[in-house]
Predict the structure.
Amino acid sequence: MADTTGFLKYDRELPPRRPVDIRILDWKDVYLTRENGEDEVFPVAAVRKQAARCMDCGIPFCHHACPVANLIPEWNDLARRDDWQEAIERLHSTNNFPEFTGKLCPAPCEGSCVLNLQESPVTIKQIEWEIIDRAYIEGWVQPQTAAERTGKKVAVVGSGPAGLAAAQQLTRAGHDVTVYERADRIGGLLRYGIPEFKMEKAVLDRRLDQMRAEGTRFVTGVDVGGDNDGDLSTDALRAEFDAVVLAGGATVGRDLPVPGRDLAGIHMAMDYLPYGNLQALGELDDPPINAHGKHVVIIGGGDTGADCLGTAHRQGAASVTQLEIMPTPPDRRAETNPWPTYPMIMRVSSAHEEGGERLYSVNTERFLGDDSGNVRALLLHDVERVDGRFQKVEGTERELPADLVFLAMGFTGAQREGLVDALGVEVDGRGNVVRDKEFMATLPGVFVAGDIGRGQSLIVWAIAEGRAAAAAADVWLTGNSMLPRPVTPTAVALR
Ligand SMILES: Cc1cc2nc3c(=O)[nH]c(=O)nc-3n(C[C@H](O)[C@H](O)[C@H](O)COP(=O)(O)OP(=O)(O)OC[C@H]3O[C@@H](n4cnc5c(N)ncnc54)[C@H](O)[C@@H]3O)c2cc1C
Ligand code: SF4
């Protein structure tokens, strides 16, 4: 039974981030790391008060809004009662990696929390993080090895959150699972997209240790369907494995083919962020793309753009401007965006707190170069929406100086050449690999999970899909499955 008056006694409170002038000098998490099991600035007593704000609603909309269907009211109450070990049991029953979502999820659950009718939802995501972080500190996260082996071999292609969730579920179901990753390290966008200051790589590595101990095999530097020495052909893949899970992500970035695009100094965001991640770990002193001393413009106002912003500031950019074609979001929900749908409101990420300017309702007409072929400015104009389409506001053209530009306008789907073309699986009009209601591609025994099938999405959806595709693959291999299926391939957010 929840504390029925907690929400009346306590206001919503979150741990403060480290001061901007200090955190900007390093790459570490913007939040303080717990020392000796206790957070100096946000002790466990404060977390328990926040958990006590949960009303254990008759219909927990938060639970329905969470793609992995986390049992939020249950673990909120366990956290309130100080029963952290039972809380992590409950949390792990629905989510393989609550540390990734506890750090990185945009928390649609909080948008749907009944207290969010008053715009002060329970701090669900923070409590999720506290439960799993405490569990690691206490030594409660141990390998869970399968009681029986099936002798079936499964290949998972791609090691982002979808591939990792599928691999962990299938390994625990007793199959011999090998994860192939073409990068030199495991993790997908958790490793080379998302910067250290949002989630430290140590958080990923400790989970990979558990997976290795459970028996999942990881092979890096192998492009499945690629044609370099050491790559694995799709024929060998099909011959060697009883089932395959494709989890290669939506890696094709949306480009901006306007005049001047070929000038030097204009890069896709995902050509830039991996270097920043290596620099953060002290493995690269002078990244080939470096914002140090430069006037940086980021085109795209989402998460990827914010990650470029925080990286550029840490590299010592002279200025950073982030452009967005959409209008400035409102501070409160519009009437057309009612509770319990996801609130489309102005958000200030940690990177935005650190500086830079955000321009809304602007479009880039062309890039302007200097005599040496380097970008020197963008020619911008304002836009307005007319009949649902963006139109130029005449007379608003102006130059915005830039010597480094990052394109962070989202992703257009799965990479075709290599794996997808070589396998011959069907791709839909949106660039996503087609799957049926059993997550199976147009080839028997080949399953599809995460952004490669859903299109650019979120970590929590990737985990949910990895779990569901693993259940489908388990049925294919053994005739039945005890694994959960939190989502269908066509499930969408509450709307
Ligand atoms: C910069 C950035 C920041 C983001 N921030 C957030 C955030 O804060 N919160 C959030 O919820 N979501 C965020 N997202 C979205 C989120 O990261 C993705 O939705 C999620 O990672 C998708 O997981 P996935 O496993 O499907 O694919 P990915 O994480 O993209 O992993 C796919 C992996 O497959 C590998 N691969 C592909 N083809 C092959 C092949 N042929 N052989 C071997 N390996 C292959 C790739 O190298 C890659 O490592 C962000 C995305 C970006 C780009
Ligand atoms: S995974 Fe995301 S939606 Fe689900 S409880 Fe955690 S923060 Fe909320």
